[in-house]
């Protein structure tokens, strides 16, 4: 056995002292030399001419690439150190932790039925909004506008939904905010969102739709599994209102303002007095956080001065999170989630709407992604063309513009990439509306499917991720 090991190690040009203790069992790979000999090791670093391997005995060896097989050379060329570190050290972090470490601000979202509800401030007053990726533009409910001290303009406009059209008017909105994200002096359309709804289903508490125009601007990420929504405040109007102060608020220390994407590498902390700052944790005691601010300065912050959520974060701060920041900060959300075995899809933008390709009953189709649709919905003609039987039109679907007749349909098979759903019942209706022409998509991929598949939607990377158990 000793003779074999020495022969295998002859392909290495040098060997160092014992490597630091690392759990590498899941990453062991059989490397093969040009002489046909094999050895188990973990790739831990590389350059243009050599690779550094961690052997089973915890020793390191530097190997010339030219001495390895073609397959191993190709593997090393494609290998990404940040991904490897993530797999070894950071896989236990939640999506929320990963995004907050990147400077996103997160909020809980409530699911009512399958609708995503968030609480914002409209003109300084608490207001509930439905998060609706299918709404190209945000929309206000006329019945709630005056409650927030806003005025309705003349009903000279129209908005269009799955059930038809309805009169609308412009409203001058002084402020719409959620946490650190602020929209200032916006014109937003308002309409009666309860048109034709049965009396018991009218909504007297929702202020409107938080649509794709705002979601896109904030580089929003929506995570159904964690029931949270994530925004980038530096993308909102706050920067226009507050100037550089919005980019680099800190705990009282002045310094250099960072580039927007560089600021993403610092977490937003909130104080009990309402102030906020961007920083990374360096160390902690039971009562004090030592943080590095976005301006490069180090400061100590009493934990009891932080908001309740940030006190919980401080208590839960781990070395894994620190490793992620130091070594894995350049990973995209796509890379983070595909490492977690999510299916990843690049979506197509059409205006503010987002579309993904898939199949229905083994025929190619395109779906509109619509978090505002409690249930997925088929266009009547598209459904019949794809082999879906549609029952009597004795049901109704409700949306902006009122109600429309619908029939029950069974989708025998739906696929998006490797995700497959079978024998699903949904409604089908004429979705052509005012267009008067056939749709070039089959219908709405709604919140029912996205909730089932733990969907994650990211506007920054134009992707949707689905996880099928």
Topology:
Elements: H1 2-9, E1 14-18, E2 29-32, E3 38-46, E4 50-55, E5 59-64, H2 70-78, H3 81-90, H4 95-101, E6 105-108, E7 110-112, E8 115-122, E9 125-132, E10 139-141, H5 142-145, E11 157-161, E12 164-178, E13 181-191, E14 206-211, H6 212-217, E15 221-223, E16 228-231, H7 238-242, H8 260-263, E17 267-270, E18 276-284, E19 288-293, E20 298-302, H9 308-316, H10 319-327, H11 333-339, E21 343-346, E22 348-350, E23 353-360, E24 363-369, E25 377-379, H12 380-385, E26 395-399, E27 402-416, E28 419-429, E29 443-445, H13 447-452, E30 456-458, E31 463-466
Parallel strand pairs: 9-14, 10-13, 24-29, 25-28
Antiparallel strand pairs: 1-5, 2-3, 3-4, 4-5, 6-16, 7-8, 8-9, 8-12, 10-14, 11-12, 12-13, 15-16, 15-30, 17-18, 18-19, 19-20, 21-31, 22-23, 23-24, 23-27, 25-29, 26-27, 27-28, 30-31
Helix pairs in contact: 3-10
Brief characterization of the structure:
By secondary structure, this protein is of the alpha+beta class. The chain has 13 helices and 31 strands.
Protein described:
By secondary structure, the chain is α+β, with helices and mostly antiparallel strands. Helices cover 19% and strands 41% of the residues. The protein contains 13 helices and 31 strands. Strands 6-16-15-30-31-21 form a six-stranded antiparallel beta sheet, with helices on one face. A six-stranded mixed barrel has the order 8-9-14-10-13-12. Strand 12 and strand 13 (181-191) form a beta hairpin. Helix 3 runs antiparallel to helix 10. The protein is flat. The two termini are 44 Å apart.
């Amino acid at each position: 056995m000793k003779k074999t090991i020495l022969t295998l190690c002859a392909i290495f040009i040098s060997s160092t002292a014992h490597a630091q203790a690392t759990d590498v069992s899941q990453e062991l790979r059989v490397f093969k030399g040009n002489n046909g000999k094999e050895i188990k090791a973990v790739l831990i670093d590389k350059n243009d001419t050599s690779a550094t391997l961690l052997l089973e005995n915890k020793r390191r060896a530097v190997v010339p690439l030219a001495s390895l097989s073609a397959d191993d050379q190709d593997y090393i060329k494609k290998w990404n150190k940040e991904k490897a570190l993530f797999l070894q050290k950071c896989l236990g972090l939640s999506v929320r932790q990963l995004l907050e470490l990147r400077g996103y601000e997160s909020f809980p979202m409530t699911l009512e039925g399958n609708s995503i509800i968030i609480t914002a401030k409209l003109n300084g007053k608490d207001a509930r909004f439905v998060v609706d990726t299918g709404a190209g533009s945000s929309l206000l409910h006329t019945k709630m506008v005056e409650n927030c001290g806003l005025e309705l303009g003349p009903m000279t406009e129209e908005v269009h939904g799955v059930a038809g059209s309805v009169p609308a008017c412009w409203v001058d909105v002084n402020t719409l905010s959620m946490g650190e994200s602020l929209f200032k002096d916006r014109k937003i359309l308002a309409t009666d969102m309860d048109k034709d709804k049965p009396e018991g289903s009218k909504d007297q508490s929702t202020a409107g739709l938080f649509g794709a125009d705002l979601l896109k601007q904030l580089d929003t990420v929506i995570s159904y599994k964690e029931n949270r929504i994530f925004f980038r405040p530096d993308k909102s109007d706050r920067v226009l209102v507050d100037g550089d102060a919005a980019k680099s608020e800190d705990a009282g220390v002045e310094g250099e303002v960072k580039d927007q994407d560089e600021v993403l590498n610092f977490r937003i902390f909130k104080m009990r007095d309402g102030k906020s700052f961007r920083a990374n944790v360096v160390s902690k005691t039971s009562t004090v956080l030592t943080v590095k601010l976005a301006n490069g300065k180090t400061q100590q912050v009493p934990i009891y001065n932080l908001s309740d959520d940030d006190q919980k974060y401080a208590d839960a701060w781990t070395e894994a999170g620190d490793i992620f920041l130091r070594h894995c900060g350049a990973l995209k959300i796509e890379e983070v989630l595909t490492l977690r075995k999510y299916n990843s899809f690049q979506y197509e933008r059409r205006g503010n709407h987002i579309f993904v390709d898939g199949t229905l009953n083994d025929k190619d189709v395109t779906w509109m992604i619509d978090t505002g649709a409690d249930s997925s919905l088929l266009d009547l003609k598209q459904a019949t063309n794809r082999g879906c039987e549609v029952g009597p039109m004795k049901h109704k679907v409700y949306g902006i513009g009122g109600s429309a007749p619908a029939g029950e349909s069974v989708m025998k098979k739906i696929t998006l990439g490797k995700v497959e759903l079978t024998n699903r019942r949904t409604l089908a209706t004429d979705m052509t509306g005012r267009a008067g022409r056939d749709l070039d998509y089959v219908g709405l991929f709604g919140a029912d499917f996205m909730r089932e598949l733990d969907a994650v939607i990211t506007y920054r990377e134009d992707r949707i991720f689905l996880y099928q158990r």
